[in-house]
Amino acid sequence: MKVMSKQIIMIKNIIIVSFFCFALFSCATHVLSPNLVKNAHTNLPINELFENPLPYENRLFVFGGQIVDVKITQEGSLLEVVYIPVDYDGFPRGSKHPNTRIRALFKKEYGILDPIVYEKTRYVTIGGVFKGLQPGKIEELNYLFPFFHIEEIFLWNRPQKRYPYYNPWYDEYYPWGWGFGFGYHYRRY
Fold first, then answer.
1. Structural domains present in the chain
2. Most buried among 4, 74, 125, 142, by the most CB within 10 A?
3. pTM of the model
């Protein structure tokens, strides 16, 4: 009887620990604050924004983009991005509308978005309020930009360079011979 009860207690403990491990590791976190994400619409109805922007004004959206330009103005930092939809974590993933550009203003009361840090080709996730369509230009082309006031912004790290093949026996500083050891090689960049 005592052996059976110990086995039952051990099985219960394993089940409880497994449940807590599952609960801990299955929680996905968004890059923006939970309150903003809860109150926002994820991704943009691009076609509807251009056709009829009035119903979407003053609505909060979460979307991603690749930075095209950052300008510091009297109102704040004006960010121009190529629109990219975001996944459940807020990471920009693919695009159905690769040619749609968006302008978003980060008010100077919140600080500035330094153009050195927020440089071209970096990815961002933006939580912003839609304010309407704003006329502008892309080089010589007249363009209507969907315009947002940024509530929150997340700048993604640069992607790491990946090398398709790495020979552990080769060292660019000592390219001769095979050497000894287990093949561990520290790559110098």
1. 34-155 (2.40.50.140)
2. 125
3. 0.69
